[in-house]
Write a structure and sequence with these properties.
single chain; 467 residues; alpha/beta; Rossmann fold; 8-stranded mixed beta sheet
Length: 467
């Protein structure tokens, strides 16, 4: 899920805004779907819900004023630029060696898309010092309706699209990017779009930074999705999905209800998918040097409350009610069920990343060409960035990585390798008052931040070695 704040690039501050977008994830099955999953809407939709909050402006020295804010949020959320995130997660040494995803293709799956994403990416790249990638938009399962900036559903997905495309490019600046746009956010349309991507072997890595409670997806579609993900893995494709932004809960399957479900999010819960949870990253405001991380729980987040559409502010995680524990998790956790997430990434609004979107400008009543940037957070930021890292690993190893979960958990079994390759997040929780609890972060794997966040220059060679 993303959280955004607005920043002017070249002019005085205009009292910018922060946009929060609900995190989403889709998942499949590793076995038969229980009969209880059948009581879901016939055309269930995944939605996102923007929220506005004040932010800041760009300073004359080519840094954003939000970069220098304290992490306590007393002056508004801190932000990070591309180079800072590349430094914090130790991606820069690989980029300096030319390991940047070159020759590989990342597929971003989203609904509705954004009418300005092509030019937005160019503007973002110019501000962040990145070269423009090969970028293609496809609508393989039907075109979406004409974009309406006043439609909250389409507008929210345009923000999701912008975050996914721009930040996949940050972690794999040499990779090709294909944006596969579903005609709507109906589960069936998203699945059909993903099916085309897999069947036609469009890319090496697929990111789906959205989701819903497992019980909310039609069991027939869940079964089809799981089979599709298994097919993707057999082709060597690596799959990522965000674990959600409302802690150990998910919104009710009834869009008119404010109830919260104690549930894992799909598709992150599928054992063929690498589920990505959220952290709050503290890094040097100037250099981006890594300092510390905690499980992502904003002060206004999960506890309490976490049931409203806009209360999407802590790392999703928990245990599947559909999939048994996969073999690769046998040494990591004792539940008989598949646990999510597998890994994590920076998700906090405090320490969020920056995006540019002309569509967002219009939605905020600004000229579309005005150089205003927005801070965004949520687990939606992690899935595309991990997808970029997988593209880097594909280039490094000269072959597709496929399902990286067995390799990740194998690396984590050896304490010496684990402590070098991943940041183990041990502080925080994803408790939700309305459902009466959640889970705590702790040493090694946990159902809040998984195995942790990447020390990329150390991790990727190990992934290659284990694949």
């Amino acid at each position: 899920m993303p959280v955004i704040s607005r920043f002017r690039l070249t002019r005085p501050s205009i009292g910018a805004a922060m946009l929060v977008v609900a995190g989403l994830v889709l998942s499949g099955l590793s076995g038969a779907v229980p009969a209880s999953a059948a009581t879901v809407p016939t055309a269930h939709r995944i939605t996102v819900h923007p929220q506005i909050d004040p932010a800041g402006a760009k300073a004359p020295n080519a840094t954003f004023s939000c970069q220098n804010r304290p992490m306590d949020g007393s002056q508004g959320p801190r932000c990070y630029q591309a180079a800072q995130i590349q430094t914090a997660y130790n991606i820069t040494p690989l980029l300096n060696r030319g390991i940047n995803g070159a020759g590989r293709t990342i597929v971003i799956v989203d609904a509705f898309g954004s009418p300005t994403i092509g030019s937005d990416l160019q503007t973002f790249d110019a501000a962040m010092g990145l070269a423009d990638p090969s970028f293609t938009v496809i609508t393989p399962a039907g075109s979406p309706p004409p974009f309406d900036v006043n439609d909250p559903n389409q507008f929210g997905w345009s923000v999701e699209t912008t975050l996914d495309v721009e930040w996949a490019h940050v972690t794999a600046p040499g990779a090709n990017i294909v944006l596969a746009v579903a005609a709507s956010n109906n589960d069936s349309d998203i699945l059909n779009t993903t099916r085309y991507v897999v069947d036609h072997n469009i890319g090496d890595v697929i990111s789906q930074s959205f989701g819903e409670a497992e019980a909310c997806m039609d069991p027939t579609l869940l079964s089809q999705q799981h089979a599709l993900f298994a097919k993707a893995v057999r082709k060597g494709i690596t799959l990522f999905a965000s674990s959600g932004d409302s802690g150990a809960s998910q919104p009710s399957c009834d869009p008119n209800s404010t109830a919260a479900l104690f549930a894992a999010s799909t598709p992150a819960s599928d054992p063929n998918v690498t589920g990505v949870g959220g952290t709050t990253l503290t890094a040097d405001p100037s250099t981006g040097a890594y300092q510390s991380e905690t499980a992502w729980t904003e002060p206004f987040g999960c506890n309490p409350p976490a049931i409203a559409a806009t209360d999407v502010n802590c790392s999703g995680g928990g245990f599947s009610r559909l999939y048994p524990r996969p073999a690769y998790q046998a040494s990591a956790q004792r539940s008989r069920a598949r646990g999510v997430p597998d890994v994590a990434y920076n998700a906090g609004l405090a320490g969020g990343v920056l995006i540019f979107s002309a569509t967002l400008n219009v939605g905020e009543g600004l000229p579309p060409d005005q150089l205003v940037f927005f801070i965004i957070g949520g687990t939606s930021a992690g899935s595309p960035q991990w997808a970029g890292l997988a593209a880097d690993a594909d280039q490094l190893g000269r072959h597709r990585m496929g399902n990286i979960n067995p390799a990740l958990y194998s690396i984590a079994q050896a304490r010496g390798r684990y402590s070098v390759a991943l940041h183990d997040i041990t502080i925080g929780s994803n408790d939700v008052a309305e459902i009466g609890g959640g889970f705590n972060a702790g040493p090694r794997w946990d159902p809040v931040t998984g195995l942790g966040t990447p020390n990329t220059a150390a991790l990727l060679p190990l992934l290659v070695k284990h694949n």
